[in-house]
Give the backbone structure.
Amino acid sequence: MQLYLQLPAVGVREAFPNEDVCRERLIDVRWPAGPECPMCRSDDVGFLETRRSYHCRACLTQFTVGSHTIFHRSRFSLVSWFTTAGDIIADAAFDADVYRLTVSDIQSRLATSHPAANRMAEIIRRDLMTADDSLMARCICTNERPAPPDGIEESGRSHYTWLNGQIIAHHGGAEAVHSIRSRPSSETA
Ligand SMILES: [Zn+2]
């Protein structure tokens, strides 16, 4: 998956180390022009610092930056979502015989149940498949997608083939796989 080349060079965990950083990133990505009510689209919105919640003065709806997104009412922290999505993107970039992220891996990292880990992985994978609309990808894929060399059409099939080659050339081999495998095996959110 070419999104791998767009992940932060320092790694998702390092780029988004805590809840405040993740929340700020989500706010920027979701509302580049400022907060907007998810129900009536009004931008006449107030913010309650203590509850980190917004309220719409037009329709009186209360909401958070995660409301009506894949993070809606999630029990998991944004850090957990961001890092798991990074792991899933890395997993998809490599052949299954080289590296395979399992639901059990996610379960142990998040210290959660198997069904909850599975559900999160499904939500992330479904979101990532929406390509340019993927909220998750727009949050954590902070690098520009590498442009193709001369003679290869941008976004064409050969561009993707070339990008896949870059994953192996730039990040592949035993070293990259080792760095993925040696990530912390458990994290408490
Ligand atoms: Zn409203």
